[in-house]
Structure formats: C-alpha cells, structure tokens
Amino acid sequence: MKLDAELRFAVADLYATYAACIDDGRFEEWPELFTDDAWYRIVARENYDRDLPLSVVSLKGKPMMRDRVYGISSTIFHAPYYQRHIISTPLLFVSEEAVVHATANYAVFRTKRDMDADIYNIGQYLDEIVSTEGGLRFRKKFCVYDNDIIPNSLIYPV
Asked: Rounded to two decimals, what is the model's pTM?
C-alpha cells in the first residue's frame, strides 16, 4: 500500500469518524471501526513503556467490544457526561504487509452539565490500520495515556 494523499485522507477520515462516533454517543457504531479480530487497549504510559500487560481496558475482537458497548448502554450507571476528542494529524508508516502504522496524539475533554469541563485523558494512539472491503479499519488500537491517574472510572472508549 502506497502512502499517498488518498491514503492520508482516508486515515484522517477514520480518525474523525472514530472521534465523532464516541463524542456523539453512537457507541453501537464504535466496534464497526475495527476488524473482527482487532485489539483495543487503554494502557498507562508506564506499563506500555515497560511492556507490562496490565491495562485499564483490553478488548480482543468485536464481541468483547460489543459487550463493552452493552455495558455502557445497559449496565453501567453513572452521571451523564460528554466527551470531546482532539486528535493530532497522525504520523504514518506503511509496512511491507500493507499495514498502516499510525501514531497520533490525543486529548479527551469531559464535561458534566453542572460542572466545569476538565481534561479527562491525554496520550497517544498507537494504531495498526488495514484496508478491508468496508474501508480502513483499526486492527490494533492502543490508547497510551500519559497521566497516572484517571479521574473516576473510565466508562466510554478513549
């Protein structure tokens, strides 16, 4: 796969779709941005850098992601809040196997209706993206957050 302008736009569109899906609360669409066997992981920078397996969230495959969505919409009770993602332009590298390796910085802001907005999570996406019949999809998405403490519980995808 050649790294050209069309691929760059397609990757940018995938990131924009990812952020809008979560920010708009369309969580049922979120697993469809991944391959069937994708690995989604939210991990602290310290654990990632030391190659430690402990993660806040580690979902392997769409069934686990759909289960997470079910939990968000049906079993987890919390004060409602909004998330807004700011994602940098990703650095891209295409391997010989036509896998796009993308690295992008992200910031997630959280707002509760009766409170000031706060910075919820800041880090880096380390992604593997592949071309499928349905378009580009994440094969691996690691959300490596820089802060040691996540305020309250982590409910929505980052």
From this structure: 0.92
